[in-house]
């Protein structure tokens, strides 16, 4: 799993508990979650901050200051927004994984 500043909000351990150590599936889930979370972040961040955020994220995706920036500049409680989206996407993905076991 790729380390990112929002990892403490998504509880990836729940996924590992279901999927196990299947690296290919974990990578797909990680990438899918990341795409959804970035979509959520950019949807709640005013457009004039997108470039600043994405540049900083690309340079240092684990920097906790990114979360502080988002908490200051986003239109809603970004931690709650990220956690809710992650929970929904994890549920959908794990349902699919369980169906295909």
From TrEMBL:
Name the domain of life this protein comes from: Bacteria
Provide the protein name. Answer: Uncharacterized protein
The taxonomic lineage of its organism, from the top, reads: Bacteria, Candidatus Gottesmaniibacteriota
